[in-house]
Amino acid sequence: MTVEVGSKTEGKVTGITNFGAFVDLGDKQSGMVHISEVADSYVKDIHDVLKVGDTVKVLVLNDKDGKIALSIKQATDKPRPRHHERKPRPQQHQQRPESFDDMMSGFMKESEDRLSTLRKNTEGKRGGRGGRRG
To answer: What b-and-e string marks burial along 83-94, b requiring 16 or more CB atoms within 10 Å of the CB?
Structure first.
């Protein structure tokens, strides 16, 4: 019996690596669950979540060239979130857009401030490495 993409099945964890876990699906078939598909939350160390011999429910994601990709987090039936009524957001005061001239003058002032600070910090430090070259 071959596994079908999109089907849920149970399997037994046969091996664990730092990037995922291998799961025996029976009928001489096995697949791999990538570490990102183990749990809904971030998993730093897969050994904190799984161990060899665990029986897990998995969803078959794809089957390419005999390599079966599985997911544990997508196999669990999660309750659907309820639609809550949204509260209207408080109105923010809309500023009128600045004119081009206002934006340009602000840019020029900021640019001059930065250049003067840069000049102060580099003054007297010219000459690069070492002594004078002749």
So the answer is: eeeeeeeeeeee
